[in-house]
Amino acid sequence: MKKLIVIFLLLSQVIFAQQKQMSLEDAILGRYTYLRPKSMSGLSWRNASAYTYIKGDSLMQVLAKSGKEELLLTKTNLETISGETFRAFPFFSWLNGNEMLIGTPNGRIKIDLANKKILSKITYPEDAEEVQFSEKGNLAAYVEDENLFLALANNELRQVTSDGGNGIVNGKSVHRNEFGINGGIFLSPKGNCVAFYRKDETMVKDYPLVDFMAREAEYTPVKYPMAGMESHHVTLGVYHIESGKTTFLNTGGPLDHYLTNVTWSPDEKYIYMAELNREQNHMQLNCYGAATGEKVKTLFEEKSETYVEPLFPIEFSKVNPNEFYYLSRQDGWFHVYKYNTDGKLLQQLTKGEWEVTRIIGFDEKETQLFVEGTFDDPLQNHICKVDIKSGEVSKISQQEGIHNASLSPDAAYVIDNWNGPEVPGNIDLYTANGKLVRNIFSAANPVKDYLLGENKLVTLKTKDGKYDLYGRLILPTNFDPSKKYPVIVYVYGGPHSQLVNKSWQHQARWWQYYMASEGYIAFTMDNRGTNNRGREFETEVHRQLGILETEDQVQGIEYLKSLPYVDPERIGVHGWSYGGFMTLNLKLRHPEVFKVAVAGGPVVDWSMYEIMYGERYMDMPQENPGGYEKSDMTRLVGNLDGNLMLIHGAQDETVVMQHSMKFLRECVKQNKQVDFFAYPIHPHNVRGKDRIHLMRKVSDYFLENL
Amino acid sequence: MKKLIVIFLLLSQVIFAQQKQMSLEDAILGRYTYLRPKSMSGLSWRNASAYTYIKGDSLMQVLAKSGKEELLLTKTNLETISGETFRAFPFFSWLNGNEMLIGTPNGRIKIDLANKKILSKITYPEDAEEVQFSEKGNLAAYVEDENLFLALANNELRQVTSDGGNGIVNGKSVHRNEFGINGGIFLSPKGNCVAFYRKDETMVKDYPLVDFMAREAEYTPVKYPMAGMESHHVTLGVYHIESGKTTFLNTGGPLDHYLTNVTWSPDEKYIYMAELNREQNHMQLNCYGAATGEKVKTLFEEKSETYVEPLFPIEFSKVNPNEFYYLSRQDGWFHVYKYNTDGKLLQQLTKGEWEVTRIIGFDEKETQLFVEGTFDDPLQNHICKVDIKSGEVSKISQQEGIHNASLSPDAAYVIDNWNGPEVPGNIDLYTANGKLVRNIFSAANPVKDYLLGENKLVTLKTKDGKYDLYGRLILPTNFDPSKKYPVIVYVYGGPHSQLVNKSWQHQARWWQYYMASEGYIAFTMDNRGTNNRGREFETEVHRQLGILETEDQVQGIEYLKSLPYVDPERIGVHGWSYGGFMTLNLKLRHPEVFKVAVAGGPVVDWSMYEIMYGERYMDMPQENPGGYEKSDMTRLVGNLDGNLMLIHGAQDETVVMQHSMKFLRECVKQNKQVDFFAYPIHPHNVRGKDRIHLMRKVSDYFLENL
Fold first, then answer.
1. Which of A82, A442, B127, B308 counts the highest number of beta carbons within 10 A?
2. Looking at this predicted complex, what is its ipTM?
């Protein structure tokens, strides 16, 4: 009898295990932990024939050709060599097949593996920010108190700037991370010079943030330049280590221009930058003398009636140092161009109605170019090989999905780390000719025990029939086509985003499955303005944000209404940031469609958004008053009907609280009821465990009102 | 046939008129307009035999004895005399039977009525603040840019101080209007000197307010000294008009003391003040030489184990200038004492377990004292006459209610402006002997067309049986005792308040009738700590705010639960400010009782409230950590269950937004759902037409959740 009970219990566990409902906690906490597909750690090429990865406390080496695997190094080995103690096998990178750079809590150690000894050691202070290491590992640059410092190999710490603070910032990212910028330190290839951004934001208005958690609330302002207002001034300094002298590039004015995509020439004599005017419609690729700071020449220019958005630094040829490659959207799609340093266009290496998303590398002679790109499907990202002479492009990655490449040093092999709609994560090894050598890793399906709604792609058309629009529909669990279901549209819709693609689960968030398990259809669609669809698709929204995006989203609604199992009286919408803006657009322009809406950290009026992003898409308020007026959500408050909730992080430095406050004020003024919540210590997004509170609030709003 | 229809329509209007439901708009907008009982305008004594009042554009005079009424003066007459133009009959006051002071938009004109001419004219700048006129009308003092100025009769404007600004404030109220303070200018009786407060708040921490309505949000800090933190320093300056010199009283330190109830001696030689230490448990009545600024003597002291709260300036005898009267709670109840200027107590004029609320005046020989006070019922305010010799007290006002007196110049007559539970507003004329001469005015019932729920008083007991507790119960319209009704408790509960008394409708707010018309029982009860009940009743809550008040409110709940028509599962609570604090106390200490709660502008933690009020009742946080901990609502968040909404004005300078933010933060931290709304441009209270939005929000929260 006991045995029977045990068997029954086991059986029921199996049944229940396969039928598990996704909880909100699963959806939120699981996203980055137990519901995230597993992958390999530290996978990287050691040399042309072998790659390495971390397994437990050890570094394993695998021969590419044979697949033969062996233990290369243990944590203990590394501790013996370095004299350090590590909690786990540390961060590392290969400088070549013998030399590794090992990360310590505040430094890097260069190791000679054959001789088991330290080659050099760099240590920087614990409060150092923005640390950058030279390729050779003999130098680090970092920022302390808005000033640039160097840590040299002989334990020398050197202060490069001293004017940091009070609105002057050295060595940090500028232009609010637009234009592909993600740092402010540019070490020269041989390690003799350091270029760095200097930002003067003394003329930029303070946005008043308040730290409510202090004993008595504290004023903690940030510099926030709003569209049409005075912008910060950026210059580029070049510090010469030997002479100890700093030269600033003589870029000329107006000083509210954008200095982007800084690149050193291989010989360290020149610095190249894509310089963009404040209007963002005229880019010059300029070359400066690193020693003199004077402009040598303008290599070429790009102009546009909408905007030019340089995102990728030039990459110098290793074969001919007078040539470089550049990833540009000048023909309407991101493609690779080859120029010489006179600015002469030598060749367009890729072309066609698809987008190159990354230059992976070249073979040693640079006759073969490897790129990632959409190739034959804007919902995929493939690893492609381009024969430079013939221009012929062939896909190395084969399976439907989103592929990321790691090329072996001599370009004989490609590691393809990818996932697809039904594939949580695979790592495959290919030859450069596209022959699958072997599968290296396959992630288990982390949600195999859950009962999930069906997830399917839909393809619609813009109202004018010009473009395809791609959507993702998740049906409720235990879907019954004879019933009517409410819908929650999750929207983002802003430039540089693509929510629907052919990655794992079509890139759905687990929260959508959670709502599906609560009986809602979860729908998401990318509208005009979003990524990977070419310049025209993106720029149609220029100067009138919200208008065409909304028109496209309504196409999605029309589709939903055509489905017999959709209850057209119960449609809700939720989005954050640009998605909050879209949520307000949808709710206020179509109150008859959207019964319930939750707008998180929403842009309400683009004149309150920052200059770099805002003016690119809207121009200045003084140049485009009509466009700003049309996209000002406070002007649509009169249409408000039904349930709308705004949510805002009280410390939001991206879409500042002023947006929600002005919207609420207008609602109160017009005696329109609206709901609101503030997350006191959170910035633009509510992350960590508090996100459960947030998504409980969002979910409850739909559960109670929709 | 047509006639019949007309008659039917007329009839139905009558019926509907008598059955009108109170709308939210009526309740809120009507409160200060069409639902406010009418009264008389400008009612004041001209001389011993006649009073005057404004009727349309005219000033009417009535002889007290005969009641004979005549037109005294029209607006046009006044315009002819003054040379000014008035929209309506202007603000005025009688200096004597012949001389009037007339208000102009930025000044005062003294008129000789018999000779129809201007005696003097004072004009001050349009941006003048805090304007004070001398009794004789020949001098005004005012503040501009935190500096004190004088406007003299010969058109001379004189600047008295020049150090105002940047944390120095001259001539304005200090100590956050506590201790009866409502201004910072004290003109001497004969008009030769001006005493004024000087406040140095440079050492007080800024509380960061933000004006979200600016182009880019602006930082607009206010000085806000929180309990236990550094407080402002106040001194008293005396400006001598003839010499043009200013003397500051040499009050000594510590400088964070309180200088209160400033009074000039009749001869202008001395200034008397009730000086209180920061701890508020030791008061000295001190006398200073006005010319020297030096202390002459301490007349007497009051000490307490809880606090001394001087609220009323001394009033000099007009018969003997070396004697004065003082309204003090030294025996546990507010009573009138007579001292001489040596500080000798001559006589306690009133006594017993009741509170004198105001000294009205005396007869000419000062043998009869007239006061207002609770006398035989703490829910009433009566006009009483005290025979000083015998101590015998007799009521002049007879009817149940709240009475306010205006004594004729020779104390022969009293005008009694009063209202009672069933009386919207009456004005009666009495002789000083308590004989009703006549009714002067009776206000119509402004809600006679409305169908209102029954309003009744209930008397309960504190849990220990020691005190009576008074409550007001409003039954739903169309009440059916066989049904079960939900209850909304409206609470305030803080010191100096009394929500339930025997004024018109027992002082109910119309909003409570509105909720009654929506089917809710509206209940309100005054707990320990509230006003007019003596010192002991008030100070029991000392150092532990929220504890006994909550215990008392629960007595009210027990009573409600004992009523067969109360649904004990549907009890909600709403309050603002101290009432917000009480709402949190009730919701969090008794989550099983209160299903729904709305806390407006709530104090969450007394350590974030200001020094003057906060430390009186709680001492400093460093002196009473246990008390602060017990009354810190963030510590009770773990008990939260059901619906709680916090509402806060984003510009609140009284209970700062930090209170709500810290509470929300704790809710998020503990993953407790809570609702919140912010009124972007509103300070501590949401007033004006936006109050409809607020009370719609509050009402909906109960309608939807309770």
1. B308
2. 0.95
